[in-house]
Every structure is written in structure tokens, then in C-alpha cells.
Amino acid sequence: xxxxxxxxxxxxxxxxxxxxxxxxxxxxxxxxxxxxxxxxxxxxxxxxxxxxxxxxxxxxxxxxxxxxxxxxxxxxxxxxxxxxxxxxxxxxxxxxxxxxxxxxxxxxxxxxxxxxxxxxxxxxxxxxxxxxxxxxxxxxxxxxxxxxxxxxxxxxxxxxxxxxxxxxxxxxxxxxxxxxxxxxxxxxxxxxxxxxxxxxxxxxxxxxxxxxxx
Amino acid sequence: xxxxxxxxxxxxxxxxxxxxxxxxxxxxxxxxxxxxxxxxxxxxxxxxxxxxxxxxxxxxxxxxxxxxxxxxxxxxxxxxxxxxxxxxxxxxxxxxxxxxxxxxxxxxxxxxxxxxxxxxxxxxxxxxxxxxxxxxxxxxxxxxxxxxxxxxxxxxxxxxxxxxxxxxxxxxxxxxxxxxxxxxxxxxxxxxxxxxxxxxxxxxxxxxxxxxxx
DNA sequence: AATATATCAATAATAATATATCAAAAATAA
DNA sequence: TTATTTTTGATATATTATTATTGATATATT
Lengths: 214, 214
What we know:
The structure is a homodimer.
Chain A: H1 7-25, E1 30-31, H2 33-40, H3 44-52, E2 58-59, E3 63-65, H4 66-76, E4 83-88, H5 92-98, H6 101-105, E5 108-115, E6 124-125, E7 128-132, H7 136-142, E8 147-150, H8 154-166, E9 171-174, E10 187-190, H9 193-206
Parallel strand pairs in A: 4-5, 4-8, 5-7, 8-9, 9-10
Antiparallel strand pairs in A: 1-3, 2-3, 6-7
Chain B binds a DNA duplex through helix 3 and strand 2.
């Protein structure tokens, strides 16, 4: 039984992976938490605590081996395996995901797209075939699907999620502007663009509210 | 001395706005924190604490008036004003943002798009003209620009951010996979798709559900 | 080889966040 | 009207997250 890692830690892990990748590119062989903390603008304590949630990757007096650490964090992030992903909805957002090369490099393979519009059936985006929604059941039964990206209108997203979950999909990457209700063994990761924009807006209006003023 | 609201609270505000909108559509006139907490799956305490960061919107023995509360939270989120937004990069992601109708409804008006590819100059997406990057300076000087959405490759994003900031843009909605370095009076809101996907992947091996968007 | 320095992992201390409690105000019922 | 119930906003408590400290162990220096 793995101990539960908190989501604040989870949120930080990809950032570490990103910076370690950069260090690797720059041929940095080893790094201390102190040095990394300067580069990343966080405390060295937090870095060590975060890493130690997943294992002891460092060595006293030496620091962390960049290559080893990045690989270990990669494993934590599941990047040592490949994940088959389908995209439901071939609107602009669906197409953006399909043609985003970085995912493939990290082991997230888009195996199919689906769209309600049958006129699109058979056409391809970035070599990925668009299929009719009627084919969803058959496709998932024949092919392993680890992740489904949902880029359909919010009005039909819950219904779609139910359909995907009933077919055994355990991870949903949700771009529809609502909270999906799913069984507790299904993971939902939201990317809610409107929410993000509103946060930006909120922070814009409050940024000048400084301590001594009022 | 007005205390700064913490980002954990900021992160939750758009979700309240969303649920209150739903209640309004369902013609619910008033609601208690207790009832809302059941619907939203959080504690009533947290809801009251969150709201009280921005004002006293409720009434003992009555609860919250849905219409009033939603309007107040709307103001907190800056939705009572309009924000002029430009999009830099007219790839799939840029086009997805440009054609996403919901932003406009919430007062975020896309006034122009820019792309390095001069062949696209003059063409339109969702009635928004694509301009050459050469026109950036001129456009920003002539037109108020509140927010710039950055959907260019990571390699050129920092350089672009510097350019935008030097032209006086104070808010960046960043989709490029890197941490932008900007003056402290500039707000950066990241939407890092790869990071989000990695978090999903991490959670898949460790089971949990939660929201994204920092 | 001996000593000094670097640095982690674990633990303790502090700070931030979330939840529970409660007095007072307002609504509702009697 | 008066009593009872509801429900907030404020405050107290509990929990979680972050930062600092410490002891152990590796590396570097003399």
C-alpha cells in the first residue's frame, strides 16, 4: 500500500522534471537541493521533502545525480510507460491536443479521435484518424485506452464520461467546463480554461492591494 | 491593512461562480452554506471563510441570495469589467482560444491575433484578424491590451514576454511549457498542458481526483 | 590519514489552511 | 407577540504544509 501523497506535492512534480531536463541538457551531472532551490525559486527544504515522498534519491555530501533523479521522477510521473490516449471532440481544442508533439515524446500516444460529425469520419489530423462516435464502444473494446481527453461541449460531457467509464476507461482529462461525477476509482484531471482566465483576472484587480494602503 | 487573499482561495472562486450560475439557472433564490456545501462537496465552513475574504455577502437566518452572491463573486473575479485580450500564436491552441465563445460572454474580448507567419496576415478566425508580429508594437500602443495569451513555442516565449512587458502589458496567460520571468507587477497565469497530463499520469498510479490550473 | 566541508534524510518548529464551535441576528412558527 | 429555528461571521481548534535544524555520511582538502 503506497502512502498517499498530497496534491500540493503532485502539482509541483512536473516542474521539477522540467528543470531537471534542462540541467541534463546543460550537461550538469550533479546538483544539491540548495543550488536547485536557487534556480527554481523555492526552498531547499521543500525540494528535499517533496522528493522524499517518493524515495531517497540523494546522497549526503554529494547531492543528487541529475540523470538518476530525473529518471526516478519520470517514473513517479509514469513516464516510463506508454499511455494510450483517445480524444473525444475534434474541435479546435481537440485538434490542438492531437497535434501537440510533446505528449508523444513523453509516452502519451494518441491512438484515435472521435467526433459527433460523421462528415469528418476517416479524415486525419496529425496522422490520427477521426472516427464516428458510433465506433467508440468497438474501438475501446479492441484497443487498450488508458486516458480519454474530453473536449466536447459541457452539455454532453457528463453523458460522455458515463459512457467512457462504463467501457472501463479509468482516467479522464477533462476540458469541459463542469465537474464530472465519476466512480471513485476513476481519475479526473480538469483543465478549465475559463476558470484559469478568471483567476488571472482576479489577480489582476488585487495585485495593487498592498499591506499599508488601507 | 487589507490582507492579501491566498492563492488556494483564489483557485476555488471560479468554481463557486460556476455553481451559483447553475443555481440561478435553476431559479434558486437563496441558499445556505450548508446546502451549497452538499452540492459542491466541500465543508460549509470553508465556503463561509472563502466568501468572507471578500466581504459579508450573507444574512443570518436567511443564507445567501444567489443572484446577489453571484454578482459579488463576479466582481471579485473582475467579470464586471471587460478585458481586452490579444493572442500571440495562431496555431491550433491559439485558434482554439480565439474561437472559444465562453470568454467573450464573460467579458474577455479578443481584439487581435498575431502570428510569425506573414502568409496568415489579414486572414480571420472567428472574426478576429490575424496580424504580423511586426504590427505588435503599433497595435498595443494604439489599443488598450489588458491580457496577452501566449501560445507560441517555448523557445521564443520568454523573448516574447519581455517584448510584451516592455510595451506595458501587465497580464500574461501563458501556454508555453516554461516559467516566464517577469517584473513583479506583471501577473502570469500558466496553463501547462504537459504538466497537467503528467499529474494525471501520476495520480493514475496512485488514485485520487482533483483540479488543475495554478 | 586526519580534518574540514558539503549535503542529505529525518525530525522539530513554524506557518498556513481547513474545520468546528458559538454568540448574535434574522427568519419562521407558535 | 414570543419562542424556536436557522444561519451567518467571527473565533477557536485541528490539520496540513512549509521551513529550519540536526545528526549522519559522503566528498574534498591538507
